[in-house]
Specification:
GMP Synthetase, Chain A, domain 3; AMP-bd_C; 27% strand; alpha/beta; ligase; nine-stranded mixed beta sheet; 34% helix; medium-chain fatty acid-CoA ligase activity; AMP-binding_CS
């Protein structure tokens, strides 16, 4: 899909492609800008030959131009998170050693010192956009296209590598399943370092010649205001966003509520994903908007695998059935398929599944069994649809649409000078999916308050990884083998929920 974007964009030429706070940009403008970025990155060479290029830009024109430019130069696009503090950015850059690091001028202060410390080539996106276009390489579909970092059971994030063919398969599947056309117009409020925003929204829209309107950040009042102006056909978000939109609607006047609800009814499709959607939230949104949110299931390694139907009944609590071109099965611990109605681990196979974890051959091998990717999620098939029951590791949490490793958070928290031990758990929460909570054992005589702890953690962890609650314990509960009993901790936090 990524290398096909240029060919597709040429068909749409002067049509609007993206609308951002910077302005409205046509497909022709994106083609010209990305050609300049590609030539700048090549620097006289003929091909980047699948070298990673990291970039940091706000959602908007620079982001898309740089992403396309990396692809057109033969590199691997590696979008960085706007929300990650220096230690997390440093880890990713050190893990990949990219050929270049590109930053929007507004974010140069974040990446330039880090690039210098790691002795990486650094440039501003404005420099790249001003470069003269030149001859670009021909890129074949089986080459690596993108690296997105995702948390794993071993603690530190792993780089998920997808090829151009993987991305093409992911987008083609969604375009077919969700009825995308060039007449669509979608509003994106999702981060663009995550598969949800990159593939499901931005790439699908640009693949078919639709318009993607981009807000740099989510604000419920802004989103409702955009809904009221009309013209949108699709909206996709995580459950947390829908909860906040519902809250804003409920605080509005009766007259405004009616206008807001009518604006929603003018759209053809609204989707929820990246975390479990509470049935109560689905019902509230249905009453407000007239839409039964389309729930789907996917992850960084596979794109989307399951989806409720565009047409037909959508079952609350279900993530639907396999998408076009995707094979799904449920298996027991030995890898044997389970009977219908019996819980099993979701395994996925097909062209949408990623190629490898960056520089982690052992982790890649462990992630597959007989060609099937092991998701680690447990589900049950009922009447042809799948219902997610949970994850097979208590150490993987989903909060606000992000997959988070409890082990990674614990590693960071243990570096606090006053904390001797810690254990992190996810507690079910109607807004966040999993509420990140930390049980702490302090060093003798030491104390810590929630706000000061969160401020300390905020300098080392992404916002969604920072524990929202802490409990100070004299010791962590353990089983007979000495392993921390996380179920006991979860019960404690649930019992003492404020």
């Amino acid at each position: 899909m990524s290398i096909l974007l240029a060919a597709q964009a040429a068909r749409y030429s002067d049509r609007d492609a993206i609308s951002t706070p910077e302005g409205v940009f046509s497909y022709r403008r994106l083609l010209d800008a990305s050609a300049r970025v590609a030539s700048f990155l090549l620097g006289g060479s003929s091909d980047l030959e699948e070298k990673p290029v990291a970039f940091l830009a706000p959602p908007g024109f620079h982001y898309v131009a740089v992403q396309w430019g990396i692809w057109r130069a033969g590199g691997i696009a590696m979008p960085l998170s706007l929300f990650h503090p220096r230690p997390e950015l440093e880890y990713v850059l050190d893990d990949t050693h990219p050929a270049a690091v590109i930053a929007h001028p507004q974010l140069a202060a974040v990446l330039k010192p880090l690039s210098e410390d790691l002795r990486l080539r650094f440039a501003l996106s404005t420099e790249a956009l001003e470069h003269a276009p030149g001859v670009l390489p021909t890129i074949v579909a089986d080459r690596r296209a993108m690296i997105l970092y995702t948390s794993g059971t071993t603690g530190r994030p792993k780089g998920v590598v997808t090829t151009h063919a993987n991305l093409a398969a992911q987008v083609t599947s969604l375009v077919l399943a969700w009825g995308w056309t060039s007449e669509d117009r979608i509003l994106n409020v999702l981060p663009l370092h995550h598969v949800h925003g990159i593939v499901n929204v931005l790439a699908c829209a640009l693949r078919v010649g639709a318009v993607c309107e981009i807000l740099p950040r989510f604000d419920p009042a802004e989103v409702w205001g955009r809904f009221l102006r009309g013209g949108l056909t699709l909206f996709m978000a995580v459950p947390t966003i829908y909860v906040k939109l519902i809250d804003h609607w409920e605080k509005s006047s009766p007259a405004d509520r009616e206008r807001m609800s009518e604006a929603c009814r003018g759209m053809r499709l609204m989707v929820s994903g990246s975390a479990a959607l509470p049935v109560g939230t689905l019902e509230q949104w249905r009453r407000i908007s007239g839409h039964v949110l389309l729930e789907r299931y996917g992850m960084t390694e596979i794109g989307m695998a399951l989806s409720n139907p565009l047409e037909g009944r959508r079952i609350p609590g279900s993530v639907g059935s396999p998408l076009p071109g995707v094979e799904v099965r449920l298996t027991d611990e030995s890898g044997k398929p389970v009977a219908i109605g019996t819980p099993g681990e979701i395994e996925v196979r097909g062209p949408t599944v990623f190629l490898e974890y960056w520089n982690r051959s052992e982790d890649t091998l462990k992630a597959f069994r007989d060609g099937w990717f092991l998701t680690g999620d447990i589900a049950v098939e009922e009447h042809g649809t799948y219902r997610i029951l949970g994850r097979n590791s208590v150490d993987i949490l989903k909060t606000g649409g992000y997959k988070v490793s409890a082990l990674e958070i614990e590693e960071t928290v243990r570096t606090h000078p006053d904390i001797r031990e810690c254990a992190v758990v996810g507690v079910p929460d109607p807004v966040w999916g999993d509420r990140v909570c930390a049980a702490l054992v302090m060093r003798e005589g030491a104390k810590v308050e929630l706000e000061s702890f969160r401020a300390w953690a905020g300098e080392r962890l992404a916002p969604y990884k920072i524990p929202r609650e802490i409990a100070i314990l004299s010791e962590l509960p353990r089983n007979a083998m000495g392993k921390v009993s996380k179920p006991a901790l979860k019960e404690r936090f649930q019992r003492e929920k404020p």
